[in-house]
Amino acid sequence: MAEPRSELPATLFGLGEKGESTPVRVRFLPSAIEITMKDQGPLRLTYGSVTMELGPDDEFWVFKGHALSKDLLIYINEDSLPDIIRSSGAHPSVIERIDKLASAKEAHSSGQKVALALFVLFIVVFLAGIYAGVPILLDMAVDRIPVDWEVSLGAAAAGDITRNYGECTNTELYTALAEVTDRLVAASGDQRYTFNFTIIDTNMVNAFALPGGRMFVTYGLLNVTDDPHEVAGVLGHEMAHVTERHGLRNVVANAGIRIMVAIIMSGTDSDIVDLVPLAGQLSALAFSREQERDADAVGLEVLYAARLDPDGLPRFFDRLAADDTLLEDFMEVASTHPVSADRATEIRSVISSRPAPTIAPLATDWSTLEKRCTSLPVKGIP
Ligand SMILES: [Zn+2]
Question: What is the CATH number of domain 8-105?
Answer without folding.
Answer: 2.30.29
